């Protein structure tokens, strides 16, 4: 699923702010798209596989194929921002593309309060304000806000899974430190202490959210940076090893082969020569 998000490309079909009225009912019209519903105001009842009450501060994500019937509260009509998108996966090292029909790794329902609700409300506002059909600049602005929305949803997911805002914050800080400091000497025990948690807690957080240890995450991240330089730059193996945080060319080759199946020179030759 992480690979899917890393290679995700989106196209926005429709952004609409829907103000309902007493007695309003509707069904999900376009079930071929991925759809976000942000409940800005009011209350109502949604019916899919189950029936549930929705209210302001709820965010729903529906993957293609899901059915939904909607009904507003008589005294507190719903105001909903709706975003319809299609998704493609590709553009990676192999250059292949496919339409994403399955669900993205996002929750069906997320309830936000306080700071989280304010963040979602702001992002949906940016998406709505930036979207102008047929205009490239508007499409780019909307896509940028949409990717930030997906990132925010996943961050709130991790908070809910962790059960502690403090642990979720520690994970985010540790991950960002690795993301930004991969080229240097990353000492995971020092990183854990700087985030106010134990080494074992850090490992557990990474295993829970990324399904790999912090050490493994760092190794994969370095390999991914190295792959980009092998493909798009004429850097030597020594230069790539130094810029990606490897101790030397030997360790670079050994670690890179572990994650790609080929040593760096052979991988570069295959990707550039198509053999």
Characterization of this structure:
48% of the residues lie in helices and 22% in strands. It has ten helices and ten strands. The protein has helices spanning 2-6, 114-130, 136-162, 165-181, 188-194, 199-210, 214-232, 237-243, 249-260, 264-273, and strands at residues 8-19, 25-27, 34-41, 43-47, 51-55, 58-62, 69-72, 79-90, 97-99, 109-111. Strands 1, 3, 6, 8, 9 and 10 form a six-stranded antiparallel beta sheet that branches. A four-stranded antiparallel beta sheet has the order 2-7-4-5, with no helix packed on it. α2 packs antiparallel against α3 and α7 (214-232) packs across α10 (264-273). It is globular, with a radius of gyration of 22 Å. The two termini are 28 Å apart.
Please provide a brief summary of the model.
This protein is of the alpha+beta class and 275 residues long. The chain has helices at 2-6, 114-130, 136-162, 165-181, 188-194, 199-210, 214-232, 237-243, 249-260, 264-273, and strands at residues 8-19, 25-27, 34-41, 43-47, 51-55, 58-62, 69-72, 79-90, 97-99, 109-111. It is globular, with a radius of gyration of 22 Å.
């Amino acid at each position: 699923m992480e690979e899917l998000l890393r290679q995700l490309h989106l196209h926005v079909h429709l952004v609409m702010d829907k103000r309902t009225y007493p007695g309003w009912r509707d069904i999900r019209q376009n079930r071929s798209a991925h759809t976000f519903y942000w409940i800005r105001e009011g209350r109502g009842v949604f019916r899919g596989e189950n029936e549930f009450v929705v209210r302001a501060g709820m965010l729903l994500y529906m993957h293609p194929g899901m059915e939904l019937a909607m009904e507003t509260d008589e005294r507190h009509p719903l105001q909903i921002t709706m975003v319809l998108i299609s998704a493609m996966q590709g553009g990676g090292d192999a250059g292949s593309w496919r339409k994403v029909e399955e669900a993205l790794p996002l929750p069906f329902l997320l309830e936000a309060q306080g700071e989280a609700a304010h963040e979602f409300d702001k992002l949906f506002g940016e998406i709505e304000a930036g979207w102008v059909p047929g205009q490239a600049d508007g499409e780019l602005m909307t896509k940028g806000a949409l990717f930030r929305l997906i990132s925010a949803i996943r961050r709130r997911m991790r908070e809910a899974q962790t059960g502690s805002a403090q642990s979720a914050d520690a994970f985010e800080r540790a991950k960002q430190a690795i993301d930004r400091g991969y080229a240097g000497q990353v000492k995971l025990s020092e990183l854990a202490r700087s985030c106010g948690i134990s080494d074992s807690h850090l490992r557990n957080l990474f295993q829970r959210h990324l399904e790999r240890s912090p050490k493994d995450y760092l190794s994969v991240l370095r390999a991914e940076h190295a792959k980009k330089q092998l493909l798009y730059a004429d850097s030597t193996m020594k230069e790539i090893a130094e810029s990606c945080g490897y101790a030397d060319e030997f360790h670079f080759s050994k670690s890179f082969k572990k994650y790609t199946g080929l040593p760096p020179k052979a991988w570069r030759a295959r990707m550039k020569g198509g053999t």
